Amino acid sequence: MTFGPEDDLSALIGRGGAAGAEGLLDRRRHIALGFTKNKIDPKHPDHPLRDRIARILNLPVRHW
User: Fold this and answer.
1) DSSP per-residue string spanning the chain
2) What are the distances in angstroms from CA 64 to CA 3, 7, 11, 61?
3) How far is CA 21 from CA 6, 7, 45, in A?
4) CA gyration radius for the chain?
5) CB count in 10 Å sphere of residue 24
6) Which residue of 2, 24, 25, 43 has the smallest Cβ count within 10 Å?
7) Are 20 and 61 in contact (CB under 8 A)?
8) What is the pTM assigned to this prediction?
9) pLDDT tens for the 64 residues of the chain, in order
């Protein structure tokens, strides 16, 4: 799914998955990110590590 800025929705392409998995491509900055978890957390969708990685890379923090 695309979720970039209004002027270029295809700038960010990604898909969330089970247990907080995330696949993300930032076409403008040439960054690809894949994040998986091997344990389902009862606090789902709170994933502090995934969110921290997104903040460090200046990518959107998404919760679904």
Assistant:
1) -B---TT-GGGEEEEE-GGG-EEEEETTTTEEEEE--SS--TTTT--HHHHHHHHHTT------
2) 13, 23, 20, 10
3) 25, 27, 10
4) 12
5) 22
6) 43
7) no
8) 0.63
9) 776 667 877 788 888 777 778 888 888 889 888 888 777 777 666 778 888 988 998 887 877 6
* Two tokens, residue 54: 């997104």
Map out the domains of the chain as residue ranges: 9-56
C-beta separation of 21 from 39 below 8 A? no
CB 37 within 8 A of CB 20: yes
User: What are the structure tokens assigned to 1, written together?
Assistant: 């799914």
Structure tokens at 2: 């695309």
Q: What one-letter code names the amino acid at 26?
A: D
The amino acid at residue 23 is: G
